[in-house]
Amino acid sequence: MNPIPAPLPAAASPTAPIPLSPGGGADGGSAPLRAVRLGIDTHHEPVVVLRADSAVCRAEGFEAHARIEVIGPQRSIIATLNILTAGDLLQPDQAGLSESAWRRLDLQPGDALRFRYAQPSDSMSHVRAKIYGQHLGEGQFDAIIGDIVAGRLSNVEISAFLVACAGGRMSAAEVTGLTRAMVQAGSRLSWAHPLVVDKHCIGGLPGNRTTPIVVPIAASLGLVMPKTSSRAITSPAGTADTMETLTRVDLSLEAMRRVVEAEGGCMTWGGAMNMSPADDLLIRVERTLDLDSEGQLVASVLSKKIAAGSTHVVIDIPTGPTAKVRSQDDALSLLRALQATAHAVGLKLHGIISDGTQPVGRGVGPALEAHDVLAVLQNRADAPDDLRQRALQVAAAVVELGGLGRGQAAHDLAAAALADGRAWRKFQAICRAQGGLREPGVAPFTHPVAAGQSGRVARIDNRLLARAAKLAGAPHAKTAGLWLAVHVGDRVERGQPLFVLHAESRGEIDYALDFVARHPAIVYLEE
Q1: What are the pLDDT digits (tens) for 373-403?
Q2: What's the pLDDT score for residue 130?
């Protein structure tokens, strides 16, 4: 049995002597502590760890989870305080910092740090007003979002804001105000083109990786489409994760502009360019709370489109019982909210309510989805036709919004660009401009999950399937995920593979298999 570490001297008694840092006093302002990098990932929230018996901690009267200002040689930040009461992780004259805090302060080991209580954020008065049902104006949203981006609000305070805005508590004017505030808080692109097209999928549908097909189709037809995408937050892959297996996606604003000017389009990670930076911060907390706020979703989607300089955008809303949007009524409500806010901010928006009852294609996970994308772009005979058709549906809507054709004519233009190889050539050119095209790779470990009986595939649970792919290692392990062998309506025999798990270690295969064994109806068969 491991011995229990002795408590630190000051933790046991309020009357214990206050140890002083060498050459310092008990005043936190005159006793700097030495910075130590702890290597702890706390996501976006900066965290600092102080010993309970440190001079600063005692003199300032700091308590655990307090919000304190950390002042370094180059800059200062607001961080959440954790207090070390036992063990020898830190010396009395040291302060430990999480990765987020270390990067923001731009520190070197041993740098001197000073501390004081953070001033209360004025924007929290606006959050409290919203909690009690008051209407917020654009200036109040500017203050809240500005404080979130500056790191002045903790996760708890951000949670209060999100809950106050959830459940239909935001008016159309408030959603517009939040959207504009999220745009103002980051970088914003502008283009020397009067018409800039874009697309976005609401998500919740594994394998629905249409962007890398739609962008080269649109660009090959002469449209300008600077597509920025996100990494996965709760899904097995985001578009940026998939594209990263094929080319570089973390471009600067200047590099992105060069790619678009040369090729008419790009497929990059938006997080590298500080566009609508509040969005990822809000989404991480929202997902932890398991909230699906329509107003927040609308502001999230449209703020990124405005920041990217888009003028015309197609929104795909997959709808199904295990998709993110579960009913036709919910889809129509979301589409109306998107259209109203888009109109208010000067965006031309076209919505598609698409089939979200089952996954698309065969691959679920970054590299596996990339293989599907390449098969479609290269017009291979084994390419998943459902992915091809969904990509053409979205591409046709983009072509129509871009003014190149209407109805069937728009679809024919998109289909021709894909069939004659123009889209594939444009895809290669865009990848070369972004840093080169490479093979997506294959996982070293695979394991088929077979049907326990013969029958017809009646339904596939999108959420459970996505969870299995994540437990196999996606999206962090790029070649991990699963390969789907069947779709709804297919006839299968007992022992036939339903899907194949892919992983980069045997342990992750076993982890995913344990989940699959506890959820036998991921692919449900009817006799």
Answers
A1: 999 999 999 999 999 999 999 999 999 999 9
A2: 97
Helix or strand (DSSP H, E) at 316: strand 312-319
Average pLDDT for 199-207: 95
* pLDDT at position 305: 94
* Whole-number pLDDT of residue 5: 46
Which CATH superfamily hosts domain 123-184?
Answer: Transferase, Pyrimidine Nucleoside Phosphorylase; Chain C (1.20.970.10)
CATH number, domain 197-271+293-434 = 3.40.1030.10
The pLDDT assigned to 14 comes to 33
As annotated, the active-site residues are 292
* Residue 227 tokens, joined: 């597509």
Paired tokens of 320: 């199904």
Look up residue 63 and give its two tokens: 């308590």
CA-to-CA distance for 239 and 215, rounded, in angstroms? 12
Q: How far apart are CA 175 and CA 167, in angstroms?
A: 13
Give the up-direction half-sphere exposure of residue 293: CA atoms within 13 A in the CB hemisphere.
Answer: 26
Helices (H), 39-85: 55-60
Answer whether 0.70 is exceeded by the pTM.
yes
| Nearest residue to 323 (alpha-carbon basis) of 229, 459, 461 | 461
Close Cβ partners of 264 (under 8 Å, ≥ 6 residues apart): 218, 219, 220, 222, 223, 224, 225, 426
In words, the CATH class of domain 9-117 is mainly beta
Which of 175, 156, 164, 179 is closest to 131 using CA atoms? Answer: 164
Domain coordinates in residue numbering, the chain: 9-117, 123-184, 197-271+293-434, 445-526
Q: Determine the pLDDT at residue 7.
A: 52
Helix (H) or strand (E) segment spanning residue 242: helix 239-244
Mean pLDDT of the chain: 92
Among the four given CATH numbers 3.30.1330.130, 3.90.1170.30, 3.40.50.720, 1.10.3210.10, the one describing domain 445-526:
3.90.1170.30
Phi, then psi, of 18 in degrees rounded to 5: -90, 110
